[in-house]
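User: I'm putting together a teaching handout on how multi-component assemblies are represented. Below are the sequence lines for each component of a complex, exactly as they appear in our records. Could you produce the 3D structure of the whole assembly as structure tokens, so the students can see both representations side by side? Please keep the chain order the same as the input.
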Amino acid sequence: MESEASKKLVQYKWSKVAYGGMQPGYDDNYTDESFLEDMVMNANVVKRDFWKVMLDSISISQYLCIVALVVVVWIQTLHSTIDETFLHYLLKVSFFISGLYILAPVYHTLTRSISSDSIWALSVSLLLVHLFLHNYSGYTIRPPGAQNNPSLSSNVSLNASIIASVLIASRLPLRLHVFAVMFFSLQVFLFSPLVTFSIRNYSFKLHLWFSFLLIFVTLSVVYSLHVMLFIILLSLLVFISIVGPYWLIRIQEYKFEIHGPWDEAKLCFDITE
Amino acid sequence: MHRKNPVSFLGQMCMLKAHRILMVSDFFFPNFGGVESHIYYLSQCLIKLGHKVVVMTHAYGNRAGVRYMTGGLKVYYIPCRPFLMQNTLPTFYATLPILRSILIREGISIVHGHQAFSTLCHEALMHARTMGYKTIFTDHSLYGFADVGSIHMNKVLQFTLADIDQAICVSHTSKENTVLRSGIDPEKVFVVPNAVDTAMFTPVPTRLSYDEIVIVVISRLVYRKGADLLVEVIPEVCQLHPNVRFVIGGDGLKRVRLEEMREKYSLQDKVEMLGAVPHAQVRSVLVSGHIFLNSSLTEAFCIAILEAASCGLLTVSTRVGGVPEVLPDDMIVLAEPTPGDMVRAITKAIEMLPDVNPHDMHLRMKKLYSWHDVAKRTEVVYDRALLCSNKNLLQRLQRYLKCGAWAGKLFCLVMIINFLLWLLLQRWQPSDNIEEVPDIHMHEGRQDTGVSDS
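Assistant: Of course. Below is the structure of the complete assembly, with chains in the same order as your input.
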């Protein structure tokens, strides 16, 4: 009788269920062989190719160059080496410009009570914020009919760049300078991501040529401006386009992703609010 | 303490084994939910088994101080205000003095914390270990590994579980999750599920007619509970089965979306929205339907399914987390969390309905789940915890050091400061000066497990 009962206990197979109380013959802390059997590791890991990562990183270098060029223009205007008559031509472009023109005197005196050093320090930090949060794979300004709304970080990035332009513009000697620099900066920061994105979509080769040209032009302009800045920019570009991708490929092997039945289910359809 | 009443030999045996337990969680009555009812019912049944149970939670509005609930369950609502989602502000050390005086006053031997995102629970367990009490932790929820919030929570859990005596999870899936998140030894983790008060959730004596089939949904209408799935599923089901009507109880951010769906498909007469349903009325809503629909995207256990099954409803649920472990296959229809599969499962459930006898289902649930059984299994965990050897501070610090290159050292620092504060507190307020509370023994007899409180 007793042996029969114990036989029954031995025969009882543990199952992964919570109902029916404690399972006969097994303690509650029993860990079955099937423990963690449904765990999936590194299911979504993408194997990255060094060349692809490197080519993709060109976009970042390209944008860095654009920002560097804008900064060069700022510095040049601050030293007033640009001809004023050229600026008169730009005046006639559109109504938006006249609004900016009317506001130029306000910008002109906006930061008179602040020292130039503070302005430069603030502008540099704002530009760093801009570069850090910039959306390198898309654009913040939407062309008409585009679906996706820009994310918060790309908006913050754009705003940081605009504030930086205002700060720099406020240090300029002439109202016309203020207006011109503001206008130029706004145009570049607003539309250059859209232009580069369109170029990349049109032809990747053209995108590469354009980027290399831009990098070359920027480096030469910066070289003529300041050697130290040139070295910094060059090392930054090397880091972004060569060291960075190599590093990323190296640390890929440490990637560790866990999935299992405890994950929150993802909805397979879009939630349209 | 000297007792005047003569205690029988058997009673004395029981008294020797009796534990003195402090349950700690941010979540308790008057809040309602899985954790709250788990603590309440577990405490009630442990008291019936002859143990002493005290509950500690934070103050809810004016409800601060000491309260008594059914069966002499003493509840300390300590004066900490919740700041976010019923959680107290994480202060690390501020709760040490009050916890110490409660532990000494009540003569506690085991501290049992509940729920991974209760700050009060983590703090109390930390202090209890510093003071050398046995500690047990129950995990009631599942976490992923990918987002920032989860990574942070998992580190906190690792800290709490680094030096815990025993841990309890509510389902096997939850155990796998907890072991992965905290790196605790699986042998230390017990699986003790939730249960349901079958006396409270009874089916109606007369069977409902099948001319009109009512599908009941009772959940908070939020993303995690799959309210967006409902928005897709309900119009399709209504189109496929003209005799189906939905009753939706619950409130939340996604309620607007459900109402929009109802307008868009003109389903005003097919979909009834009740708004938030008080816990006392859940049963009356449940028994008005044939099928219970759970659309959660993640769930460690899901007590709502048990309540529905106890009322004799056939359940249709998403196959997520611990849900597949909850009921035998013939009492639940599982579906992948996609609208198409959910509709298929509901259709299957409607076909199964004539074979489902609510009364039989209720009787089966009585056998499958009871809080008494949960309490007995938890008792085993307490016994095991008492068998664990006591560790001194240095031995315990070694466990924390293993938690990570930076985190390990940080955890050690937190524990050392806590230890010093405890020493200071012992000087400032010696335990001899804290008066012990005499135990109250309620009269033996059948007590209703319903919540009675002023």
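A couple of points students might notice: The first helix of chain B runs from residue 9 to 17. Chain B touches chain A through 53 residues (CB under 8 Å).
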